[in-house]
Amino acid sequence: MSLIRLALLSLLLLVSACSSEQNDPYPKSERGQNILYSAFTDRPKHLDPVQSYSEDEITFTAQIYEPPLQYDYLKRPYTLIPATSEAVPVARYYDAQGRELPADAPTADIATSVYEIRIRPGIRYQPHPAFATDATGQPLYGDLDAEKLRGIEQIADFAETGSRELVADDYIYQIKRLAHPRLHSPIFSMMGERIVGLRELGTTLHEAARELPAGAWLDLDRFPLAGVSRVDRYTYRIELRGKYPQFPYWLAMPFFAPVPREVDRFYSMPGMAEKNLTLDWYPVGTGPFMLTRNDPNSRMVLERNPNFHGETYPCVGEPGDEAAGLLADCGKPLPFIDKAVFAREKEAIPYWNKFLQGYYDASGISSDSFDQAVRLGGSGDVQLTDEMRQKGIRLLTSVKPSVFYMGFNMLDPVVGGMTPAAIKLRQALSIAIDQEEFISIFMNGRGIAATSPLPPGIFGYLEGQAGSNPVVYDWVDGRARRKPIEVARKLLAEAGWPNGRHAVSGEPLVLSLDTTSGGMGDKSRLDWLTRQFAKLDVQLVVRSTDFNRFQEKIRKGAVQLYYLGWNADYPDPENFLFLLAGSEGKVAVAGENASNYVNPEFDRLFEKMKNMESDGPRGAERLAIIRQAIAILQHDAPWIFGFHPKSYTLGHDWLHNRKSTDVGNNTLKYQRIDVGRRERLRREWNEPVLWPLLAVVVLLVAVILPAAIGYRRRERGTAR
Amino acid sequence: MLAYLVRRLLYALPILIGVNLITFALFFVVNTPDDMARMQLGVKRVTPEAIDKWKAERGYDKPLFINDAASGSAVLTDTIFFSKSARMFAGDFGRAEDGRDIAREITSRMGPSLAIALPTFILGLLVTVSFALLLTFFRASYLDFWGVVLCVAMMSISGLFYIIGGQFLISKIWRLVPISGYGGGLDAWKFVILPVLIGVISGVGSSTRWYRTIFLEEISRDYVRTARAKGLSELVVLFRHVLRNAMIPILTGVVVVIPLLFMGSLLTESFFGIPGLGSYTIDAINAQDFAVVRAMVFIGSLLYIVGLILTDVSYTFVDPRIRFN
Question: Which residues, in sequence order, are bridge partners of residue A512?
Fold first, then answer.
């Protein structure tokens, strides 16, 4: 009897507990608060600005660290504006004798470029124990060891915190950290070629670190860096070798964010690393947010930095921004939200369903949920489904600054080289592979066919006929139409492979594609690709391998065809065209030119173009050079230009000021939430359905009762 | 018994060394230190010098098993295998390739894994044993027939289906608990209910059939007939006699997995966003983090050995005739 009572009591408790939003994954204390909820899939590996380079990481680091520059949130094309600096620095050029040159001096005359950056006074760091001082001004936590760290498991466990003003030395310290032998900055090698003295500093630090015990602090202030100097408390100067107009873009990345010496010292004390108390785990910055909880296994929390220097929402955007309501918060202080909670969602289905329940404010669209979210109109336009519209969900689309392509190894005797036959063979294949069909079948239309390495939004990309690839497309009735397969067949025959067989020996043309495929999705793609080659009677052999083996083959030039993609570091054509520069040959110099393509004329144009600015008087000249370079690529066809992916993101109508930006990452401060509306809709959407609980009880009774009756009958029955 | 336990623990030592050796060999057959460096340093702008630095920093620039350049014992000790594996026998798992302390990660993730695995294990055992006894009681009846049919149907369905179906029905349609996530303290219950329920239900089919077979074998024995002849009720016969005598095969399958509960479930943790050791292992495999994979395999082997020893010990409790010699 007591068991039945207990069961009934439990059921009663369960039912009473099933109030509205029983499925709310967040603590009740967070309800009604100005918190943005988002998710991440892969745990960030590094939050130290000197190492962090991936998208998973910059989602967090870009909100915490402040490099001197940032991108304007609304303006397009992407425009650099000051973040902590007073202005966007302009390079001053000097010749080998140290004489200043005019801004339009020939590149060959420029020995060094100098960027002088002045930061705004009064900017302060987030509260952090590294800044805490005692009455005499000495660091409060300056001599910690494992014993003193007993009971301290996270940064919040330190009783005292402090702050201090951002100064130029902090930026200089971070630039030195690029050369730190234990930090493995991904841009050290590249910046070592540019920043005067950085490579030499790397060698010096390497030697110095070897003399220190493992893990001991390397005080970078003891080691001067020739090319970076302090002008005054708020000004520093960076000296580069030659001319590098793309350098300001790097000044908008966390690599060039400030790191205070005392923070580096604080984290290097004995016993800290053993408790994961590192800059890689607990970043320290001047940005609008600070990381208050770092549990990359489940939840990461950014909270408003109480010391944030203040910034206002932009008042100027591109046409259409006003109509989209993106200028409604003009001049209002940033950030709008108090907190951002990022939960880890490794699987797409729970992520999507929680978004629909209102527990995430925004979401991407996975292939599984594409049909539920979006439908394509008759004219190819993208529309939200009725279900999404009824929920007030909004769709944002943008073309990512990325390119995916199938590359030819130019060192290969069959598909490589610059002979007319080889070029025609590559052109024929470029025509045969129908990228538009690929995008339609495998990407739900989320992409545009590429005609060059440059994606939309990057200087040099042209719409319409001017931007079309005349080798692959005809311009008919105002739009590009892929050339008929007969043209490809003719080119193939002229290349010495009529009907896919060698004109002399009669051997079939068999090409191999190296890729990192696996699973059903990739198999269907490869089957499709095989059929594309078969249109020319060319046999395709797919050599699937794991990522590391694939990379190794690329490095050694042991591939014929391969599939790769590139995401822009910064919005400049140089960051795409360098992928085909002879000086970047993968086999020759382990560069980024995986096709090992070398065309002296292209290289000449590239060298000229990369040292020019897109804006200003020479912008038109630069554009003309880029178009010439692209025309060479289209003719030589070292790549089969694939596609530029489109990003589709959904957001609830209570989330305001969202604009697609694939270059600027410090976007959290612009987001605003209508908390009241979110609360109301969440309650409305998440009323629990209780009848199944009752049904389960009834079902259990229906099973147990006959069993009990049967048992009693059997126990009381006479033996048979 | 103590001598037996000591002997078994000593046997465990060569087993652990062997497991370590095999894990090491398998990992490095498909994965060179260069591959690991590239995986950690990323794809963009990685130079051969950066890779060499990364390897030197972490000791992956040494030979795998034999260092010909060294002399004396260093021929064996100044190698990747020795430097990476020997410390684990002292409980020092070192750092993951991203620099984080593995022991701390394991400690912090053990709780969430156990929060799911332990209730699933206990409830699952209770439900399946009870259900199997029920079917045994009603053996050769329609209830038994349809019960077995239900079990066969349930064991034929993929575990993934239970997870996705459960999330769809209970969390999405009925909105009774969160779809995924994890919270500490008192908040944990609402995240734990669904994975535990699904874990129990998905295991009912196969376990019930297995236990039913064991009970049916026992129920035809002479002592059962004697018990019935004494006038004992069928319930007493089943729970006091049949269940107790069927404990040896049950314990063989059950006790050995108890220590492994710490290791968590790969699939459940991934789909429910539980930050446990199962998802830690999967993450490490995906990231080619040898340090973590090695540590998890080592702990898994150790726990399995402990489970086997516990199984042997548990036999003495249910069958007093068993003695360790």
Answer: A541
Q: Which residue type is seen at B1? A: M
Taking an 8 Å cut-off on Cβ atoms, the answer to whether A45 and B191 are in contact is no
- The model's confidence at residue A353, banded by pLDDT at 50, 70 and 90, is very high
Number of H helices, E strands in chain A: 22, 25
Answer whether A64's CB lies under 8 Å from A285's CB: yes
Q: For residue A125, what pLDDT is reported?
A: 97
| Residue of B47 and B310 predicted with greater confidence | B310
**Which residues of chain A make contact with B175, given a CB cutoff of 8 A?**
22-23, 357, 686-689
Instruction: Calculate ∠ Cα A664-A348-A394, nearest 5°.
Output: 55
Residue A358 region by backbone torsions, left for phi larger than 0, else alpha for psi between -120 and 50, else beta: left
**Which phi-psi region, left, alpha or beta, contains residue A180 (left: φ > 0; alpha: ψ -120 to 50)?**
beta
Q: Which residues contact B54 (CB under 8 A, 6 or more apart)?
A: A184, B37, B40, B41, B60
Q: How far apart are CA B298 and CA B292, in angstroms?
A: 10
The amino acid at B238: L
Q: B58: nearest CA in chain A?
A: A182
pLDDT, tens digit, 9 for 90 and up, residues A645-702: 999 999 999 999 999 888 889 999 999 999 999 999 999 999 999 999 899 999 989 8
SS3 B304: helix
ipTM of the complex: 0.84
Tens of pLDDT, residues A621-649:
999 999 999 999 999 999 999 999 999 99
Which candidate in A57, A153, A298, A372 is best for mutational testing of the B interface (most B CBs within 10 A)? A298
3-state SS, A583-632, equals HHEHHHHCCCECCCCCCHHHHHHHHHHHCCCCCCCCHHHHHHHHHHHHHH
Global pTM reads: 0.88
How far apart, in whole angstroms, are the C-alpha atoms of residue A308 and residue A63?
A: 11
**Under 8 Å between Cβ of B215 and B246:** yes
